[in-house]
Amino acid sequence: MTGSGYQFTRTLAAPIDLNGTGHYVHWGVVQISVANLVVIALMVLVFVLALLLPFPRGRKRG
Amino acid sequence: MRRGTRRAGTPESSAFPTRPYDLIKEVTIALVLVAALTAGLAALFSSPDEPPVTLGSWSRADSADFTATAVSELGGTSTTAQYGPPYNHTPGAGQKIGPVGLQRFAGVRIPIDTANDFVIQPLRQAPEPAPVTAALTTWNTAPANQQQAWTSAYADALGKAPNGDLAQVPPGDYGPVPVLTARLLELAQSGALDGELLTEGTQFYQTDYTRPLLFLGDGTYFAGLAQDQHLAGDQWGMMNETGNYPGQAWLWLYTFWYQIEPFKSSHNADALVWALMALLSLVLALVPFLPGIRSIPRWTRVHRLIWRDYYRTQQPPR
Questions:
Q1: Which residue range forms the structural domain that includes residue B185?
Q2: Omega before B86 cis (within 30°)?
Q3: Average pLDDT, whole number, for chain B?
Q4: Best mutation site among A17, A19, A43, A53 for testing chain B: the one with the most B CBs within 10 Å?
Q5: pLDDT digits (tens, 9 = 90+) for B53-108
Q6: Between chains, do B249 and A39 touch, taking CB under 8 Å as contact?
Q7: Is the peptide bond before B262 cis (omega within 30 degrees of 0)?
Q8: Among B8, B118, B188, B284, which residue is least crowded by beta carbons within 10 Å?
Q9: What are the boundaries of each domain within chain A?
């Protein structure tokens, strides 16, 4: 790759590179990637927040 | 809507308090937020960037596995050769549920003769050195049992050679098989075989990768790469992605069944898991009609948490 092409690719590269060896959690028959665990935890968090956060109060009509 | 007698104590819907609600505003805000989140995460993490695996890269990385697979294609002993429908008519092959042969129902829709389609025809399409032409003639004029004997003997010899090294295969009665597979290896390493298998289809646009993928899948190299990336069926691979990217977490239940008996060791696992998931999906669709299951929301009382302001103002039941 030429110098300018290399620089261009470097500029476009993602700040956080998730390529590489994956990390996995083993628990008996269960095998799950850390990335999937994070996503599932975030989904559960959003669900709990949706339950617990109060409804925004709109203006009362008339 | 009024239906029959209204339950005692339940007020008319018009009696509930109302408030203005701007649905368009909410949809617009949700759309903009999700679009910004998607663009932000894509810029931050990008996407999986695995190099493609081709017949060319496979044959250059593991020529022994490529040659052993080519011999099995020629001898009709590979997974594809014995798969049954939709590729061929292998007696007794195919997934079934009880007596119902699901694969047989679909029939042979993509006929593949591995010896001819994966080995002989590509050799014919490429420029033929004289020894290859002679080897092809010998192969084509030999009876089927002689062809089987040659491929079987060469497969055994390859299996016994140190590291599958072609140069260390002892001399034997292999017929034209070593010449044919050596030429196929040359074609694959040059990248020509990828193109040849791609053009065996009948479509004008060459986008049907069925043949190269089946050939690739018959070897152990591709399966080894999948194993390294936790993508194999016995590794919950259906819900995984390469590297450290999140995968299809919502397929957890589908892939879960493959990890436990009796599915784990069953040759019919695909059909059985599909049937089980279809049944569970039906149960999910029929939840409102299933006594007990339909009462779970009432027992868990999650709705009272969501509408806690309303229930706080209600009189406790006597």
A1: 55-81+117-228
A2: yes
A3: 91
A4: A19
A5: 999 999 999 999 999 999 999 999 999 999 999 999 988 888 888 888 888 888 99
A6: yes
A7: yes
A8: B8
A9: 21-54
Amino acid in position B262: P
Residue A32 phi, psi (nearest 5): -145, 145
* Closest chain A residue to the Cα of B230, Cα to Cα: A22
CB interface of A with B, residues 3-62, below 8 Å: 13-24, 29-36, 38-40, 51-52, 54-55, 58-61
d(CA A7, CA B38): 26
B244 → closest Cβ in A23, A51, A54: A23
- Which SS3 state, helix, strand or coil, does residue B228 take? helix
B26, B32, B38, B40: CA torsion to nearest 10 = -130
Same domain membership, residue B308 and residue B159? no
Verify that B176 and B254 share a domain, yes or no: no
- Tell me if A31 sits within 8 A of A24, measured CB to CB: yes
Q: A60 vs B244: CB contact, 8 Å cut-off?
A: no
Q: Which tokens is B179 given?
A: 């010449």
What is the ipTM metric for this complex?
0.80
Q: What is the distance between the alpha carbons of residues B196 and B219, in angstroms, rounded to a whole number?
A: 19
**Claim to verify: residue B274 and residue B299 sit in the same structural domain:** yes
